Amino acid sequence: MQGKRMTDNALENGTKYIVLDIGGGTVDVTAHEIQRDGTLRELYQATGGCWGGTTIDLEFQILLSTIFGSDIISKINDEYPNEMIDVLLDFEMKKRSYEPGVTSHISIKCPSYLFEVYEKIHGVSIREDVKTTCTGKKVKFVRDKLLIYADTYEGFYTETLDKLVNHLRQLLHVETLSDITTLLLVGGFAESKVIKNSIVTNFPLVRVINPDDCSMAVLKGAVLFGHDQKAIRSRISKCSYGIGTHVNFHEGIHPETKKRIVNGIEICDDIFDIHVRLGERVEISQPRLEKIYHRRVQPDFSNTASLYVYASTSKSPMFVTDDSCTVLGCLSIALSGDKDEKVQSALPVDTDKVIQSALSGDSNTSVQSVLVSFHYVGTELGVLVRVAKTGKVLGAKFDFLC
């Protein structure tokens, strides 16, 4: 358990573990506990960052630009894109086969055009020129191959690994994750032995499980989940979710910029009415309480109502216009067409005339109620809207993992 890769990968009921899905572009981190019935209970909202394999590719490209010059690399990319793709593919293969502490260097075959263009511009061979620069301590050329020394190559990983390791340390200091005993390394970039060694070294008391085929582990998991979406019993919401609406204006609580006076009544616009808070545990396939929204309507308006669904990275968003908020979508409620069932938009934006008319006591207006509830199935966030008067139900789904 002291930093060794474990061969016995069986996880018992009650085990708490973190999954590091280390892909090409991003690292996705989730934490679960195995329940008695074999289902999974999410312990913390999904997190991660842009610390995948492409960050190492970028470091390699920066090195090429340092050696040959960014102008030459740009020229080769424009005129000989296929050759440069071959260079990157060669580098990708070397990333997978590199053995820390064993491999002294990696060799990358470079297209002849690189050498020719460099010599034409600078009047000297890059093979000789690199020896006189500080870059000569990092690389050397042997015929048409660029040899990158091990310490230089492993330096490509420094910033990425620092961010990944620091993120993991922060997670393990979270109260609900402090007793994590197992770490699963999956994803294509998890095949890198530099990544594996760093995780094992930095977390010696955690059991590290690294499947032989890391990339396929993700695919197999997706297939299994597709067949049984009840495998995950509950999730932790990574955002706050709610409906845009309006409320009575309260001095000292709501800013003046959000106040509108309609027929003598002060209204606060753009309220984020929270249905689920960031960090809240969500039971899958379990119905949640409905919230009711009242709308004053007129018979000569369109027989639809629009509910805007929002997500926020804040635990307590107040307004849908906050920087933390994003519109997930609009749910349009189609009604029967009877004049007394027509419902105005759930959002008060640009509806002054309707509200004024409704509040004035116009006999042609009426109040309709819609009841909204959120529910969760698999990875999707569902929104159900029920028209109180008719019982008509309309639903929509959004990606719960976004």
UniProtKB/TrEMBL annotation:
Xref: InterPro entries: ATPase_NBD
The protein's name: Uncharacterized protein
Biological source species: Mytilus galloprovincialis
